[in-house]
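Re: the multi-chain job from yesterday

Posting the exact lines I submitted so nobody has to dig through the queue logs.
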Amino acid sequence: MQTLEEASAQRCHGLTDRRSRWTTCLHEAGHVVAARRLFGRAGGAAVFEDGSGVADVGRQVDVPASFKDALATAAGAAAESLDERYSPPPVPMPVPLEVAYPEAAGRLKADVAELMPDEVAIARWCIHGREGEPDLWARRHGWVQAAAQDFVAEHRQEIVDTAAALFGRGIVRLPALPGKGVAHVGLTADAGSQGSLPRGCQTEHESPCDRVVERA
Ligand SMILES: [Zn+2]
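And the result, structure tokens for all chains:
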């Protein structure tokens, strides 16, 4: 039988899991909303049982190609700060993707392990083309971080709603923004085949339980 201490520790651990999953969801939602608002791209994100996550923002190369691209990369970490004001939605955590779609989730996690960390990608963008001007590297870094903070403040409700959907479902897709650019789809492979991640689960923001209550 479980002791009181064990039960309490387990409950605390569960809360920590929810909290870290929520922070990951905000991070990935920051990327996806930035790709949509800045480029009109469709995007998607997934969060795993171990609290890690991934966003597909339609960028094919690791190092950002432009200021806006670097901003979309920085928007992930910038969006994490929203967890100070917003709590995770009051919904149970879904069946982990690793359990529901073991093959596709395994492939996705293997791909994630190959990705360049955001901070490395941003640093390389800061230096790229200005290798001989180290003072400029730091200024570029400051500009992109400040722009990412502004972006998150401006689009905070969309980011929080997207993160809430991701939290509750484990995967989320946002459609392209009409008139903003070329649609890009690509988070999931093998749509329709058994064991793959569902392609059609877009964020509709339709479910009241997906709405997040702003903390007092
Ligand atoms: Zn990121």
